[in-house]
Design a protein that fits this description.
- It is a single chain.
- By secondary structure, this protein is mainly α.
- The protein has four domains: 54 residues, no CATH class; 99 residues, DNA polymerase, domain 1, CATH 1.10.150; 175 residues, hpI Integrase, Chain A (Orthogonal Bundle); 48 residues, no CATH class.
- Helix content is 52%, strand content 12%.
- The strands form three sheets. The protein has a three-stranded antiparallel β-sheet, covered by helices on one side.
- The longest helix has 29 residues.
- It is elongated and about 95 Å long.
């Protein structure tokens, strides 16, 4: 493997000066290391130069003492993060860095940035929309997480700093502040939802959208990218293999939506769906294709919940359609994404469905994500299990009471009762 370093030799009297370019500063001027050595001739001096370069590469050679936060962000973080982060997350990170961090610490050298500087940025941060209200704990936490990601890359990825200054920053949580969490629908609410959807007054595309969200647990972007060809009527499956997502424009001025391959967490997710649902989707697709034929439209992509000309709808428009439905039908409003949580909780509450199946259906890479995210549903299932055992043991006690009426001593003896219940359960 060729060396990244460039070096030279220079005869200085009876010695040679070795020089190696180890990096460049913000002005693109080279940063060099040098040392004097004894060498009999140029050839031996070059041999010593090669040895020194190899040593520098083994031990970490670059001089980052003058690198600023802005320089690292522009020349290193952006190049690495765009490969690692989802485009939307990448845009969110960039917006936070460029609007909150760069104005305060952009010109400071990485090595001189201390925890108190980051603490002050977070404490003094204002809302970007201009409203005169204090930032929530969760927004402050986001700023800290973004800052930490930059310093972690500088520390671990590039060895520019020895520690992450954001690690020691603490954010005080306002006790009166509560995160707005919308509980997924209960079983009774799901029943009401399905009854409302089945009304004749509900438009076919609205009915299909909500049922698809509930049955598949797909995310808004994945629903927006679902095409006619993704419904396999023969094998009774739906496949999600792409999504509509957004990225921040290069000039940081606006968000731009586009179609991307793969789901948020993987390449594709395929799942079985019921017959009634397939009949509904067949009706919707036939209606759309008939209209396209009438208008002589042959789109490259045919998004089921998109426009008739073949262009996709924004995920935000699906959200608004869901909100209008809840308002019109007087249903408790939850975020459209919380229909996914409702699906997961509904499935997890069924003890006959393995967690592995739910994990794959929701597209989680790790089953622990499924378990941790829907712990409340598992807790509810645990209570149901306890109720079942309670009924069993109660029934066992009744049977024992009937059998042992003649033997009051046996009924009073707890040890005997436990033994008899164990026999009953076995």
């Amino acid at each position: 493997m060729a060396s990244e370093l460039v070096g030279s030799i220079e005869k200085r009297g009876n010695k040679y000066r070795l020089r190696v370019t180890v990096g460049y500063n913000e002005s693109r001027n080279p940063i060099r290391k040098s040392k004097l050595i004894d060498a009999a001739n140029d050839r031996k001096a070059y041999n010593e130069l090669d040895k020194w370069i190899a040593e520098l590469e083994r031990n970490g050679y670059k001089d980052f003492s003058t690198v600023t936060f802005k320089y690292f962000y522009e020349n290193h973080w952006k190049k690495d993060a765009i490969k690692q982060l989802e485009p939307r997350a990448y845009g969110d990170y960039r917006e936070t860095i460029e609007k909150r961090l760069l104005p305060q610490i952009g010109k400071k050298r990485l090595l001189e940035i201390k925890p108190h500087m980051i603490q002050e940025i977070i404490n003094d941060a204002k809302r970007l929309d201009g409203k005169d209200t204090e930032l929530s704990y969760y927004t402050k936490k986001k700023i800290l997480n973004v800052a930490s990601s930059v310093f972690n890359l500088a520390m671990i990825g590039y060895r520019m700093i020895e520690s992450n200054p954001a690690k020691d920053v603490r954010i005080k949580k306002n006790k009166s502040e509560k995160k707005k969490i919308q509980e997924p629908y209960s079983l009774s609410e799901i029943q009401v939802l399905l009854e409302k959807i089945n009304q004749e007054s509900v438009l076919l595309d609205t009915k299909a959208l909500i049922l698809t969200a509930f049955i598949t647990g797909a995310r808004e972007g994945e629903l927006a990218a679902l095409e006619h060809m993704d419904i396999d009527f023969l094998n009774k499956k739906v496949t999600f293999h792409q999504r509509i997502t957004r990225a921040l424009s290069e000039d940081n001025s606006k968000w731009e939506y586009y179609r991307a391959d793969g789901t948020k967490t993987g390449s594709s997710v395929s799942m079985s769906v019921p017959d009634d649902y397939l009949q509904l989707m067949w009706s919707l697709i036939q209606k759309r294709e008939s209209k396209q034929k009438e208008l002589e439209i042959k789109p490259e992509h045919n998004y089921i919940f998109g426009h008739i000309d073949g262009s996709f709808s924004l995920p935000t428009s699906l959200y608004r359609k869901w909100r209008r439905f809840c308002k019109d039908e007087d249903i408790r409003f939850i975020r459209f994404h919380d229909l996914r949580h409702t699906t997961a909780s509904f499935l997890i509450a069924d003890p006959d469905i393995p967690i592995k199946v739910i994990q794959e259906r929701l597209g989680h890479k790790d089953y622990r994500t499924t378990v941790n995210m829907y712990a409340s549903a598992l807790e509810e299932s645990d209570k149901l299990a306890a109720d079942v055992f309670s009924k069993i043991t109660s029934k066992a006690g009744q049977n024992l009471g009937q059998k042992d009426k003649k033997d009051e001593l046996a009924v009073k003896n707890k040890d005997e009762k436990v033994i008899d219940i164990a026999r009953f359960l076995s």
